[in-house]
Amino acid sequence: MLPADSAGYIICIRLKRTRAELFYTYMDTKQTRSGPRRLTVLGVDYTHCTADNGDDIYSTKFGEPYIHNFLSRAWYENRRTYYRWEKLSGTGEVYRIHTRPTWNIDIVVKYSRIGQEVPGLDPEIYDEFINAEFNSPFEEFALLMEMRNTRYESPGTIRTHKPLAVYVPETRIDPQRCGRKGYIFRPKAKKAGIELDLSKNYILVYEWVKGSNAAEASAAIDMNSRDLEKVTVAVEKDLMKKGFMDHDRKPHHIIVRTTPEKSLVRDRQGKLLYAYIDFERLSRTPQREQSMKQFRRSEYLRRQRDRFHQTSPHDFPPHLNQVSIMGVDYVYGKVETTGGALWVVGKDPMLFDYFLPERWRQTPRKKLSQRRQLYYTTTKDNIHLVWGVSRVGEKPDICGFDEQGKKILEHGFNSPFEEFSLAMELGKKGFPTIYPRAIYRTGEQISASPYIDDDRPYRTHEDIIMPDSRPALMQNFEYIIIWGYYNGPDELLAIRDGEYYIGINLIHARRDGIVSEQEFERLLEDEQAKLRDAGIEDLNLHAEHFMISFDPRGKIVKNSDGNPELRVCNFELLGRV
User: Fold this and answer.
1) To which H or E segment does residue 371 belong?
2) Are strands 536-538 and 574-576 parallel, antiparallel or unpaired?
3) Looking at per-residue confidence, does 224 or 350 come out higher?
4) b/e per residue, 423-462, with b = 16+ CB within 10 A?
5) What is the pTM of this model?
6) How confident is the model over 8-43, as pLDDT tens digits?
7) Is residue 450 helix, strand or coil?
């Protein structure tokens, strides 16, 4: 039954396999500063709403029917009148909120302790042990949802209470007064999958689970400490079988029910029925962590091989769109964590999350060029990428004003979309190139640079408009171009990951004696002639713009003519003849 005081509803029917799920999302324009936005954080789908007072609500699929309750804020403010907050035992701030009959369920709220020291642990060990800190709120939900879904991987189910939402009040707090330490908070925040604020509370909302924790139940049915330990160990083994471990193992985290005969409720096979309810320090086992990384990488390689296969529009989540720019297909969407935008090459929306900036922007990197911002990194999903800041709009730094220099100045640096278009065109014409992967536009505007004095690209791109009505190419924003680090053809790696190619640019190949001086000059001349025959010209031809490869057996990869195969790896100043 819908609440009587509702100002408006959107009624949606989602079809999933053969079952229809009916749910509604509350939309009161007087109470919401922004409409609902879909986003994915660490693999979990959320509906994000910002209330008119600035509070943020990130609702999971379980919490969608209650979005209007979160937006009303009455549950949060009226703690002593209509709603009753009951403090639960434990070291953290955890409350049961009696919300019936308004919600039809009771809820549990837990104030996230991200950035706080774990009670009883020496602060000096924080850098030495895995999960010696509290999980971030979105990390906690991600691990919980993953653990719930293991019922599809292997027999057995870990029952838990349902995660409903992450609630972020607009009111700012004093981090020191709540025990939050910056040196603990910041490293965890980098891994959170979304931007977190040191001076804000993060409240995790769960559905209440009926029953008593194992410690209380043992006292009620006169269970001795040895039997209670057996229950705790049995539950710990269940978690380990599923690939998880709780670094704060307690019987208080196990919810059970008792029978009138003073025994614990069990199923027909005699196995204890319980629900697990604390995930502040839950983590994957090292074995599962490794297998998850391998699975993500294998899935990525398979999807990259098939990235241009047609995808049904019904498979696209609401926050993503399929667009085509200059003949290249992209999956386009906003990046909620930074306010930026992302274009991922291909037609597969499942590739989008691999290129979110939180997956690669903060990972260790190696500078590849002294002349430009170009870096190599391995992402959190064990994907090897090369990313660089586009120089579109900058005036090329040309020494001398000969005919070729004038030509370069007249052309200017290509936009990211032009670079990808040229790379795809060359690939179709039989020229090996590095693989274009994604284009990321940062969320914050940058101050105008004295070197950015060529607005021609922005004028030529002004008619390229995205589904959100914003131009694809915008001034005063950085564009980061992401290429695949070439270690083999996509088709080969999707089948046999590990048989890697090794690439080296032509300059280093000459320096190391892999190609002779004479062969070096001939290869460059031949490649320049082939490009011109294909209608393409490198206006600033340089040996660094080409690479040769060694196959897994250590032999130079050669083309059909028997010469070392040159792979184009720079597209900044390529132009059509």
Assistant:
1) none
2) antiparallel
3) 350
4) bbbbeeeebbbbbbbbbbbbbeeeeeeeeeebeebbeebe
5) 0.74
6) 322 232 323 322 233 333 343 334 555 678 888 888
7) coil
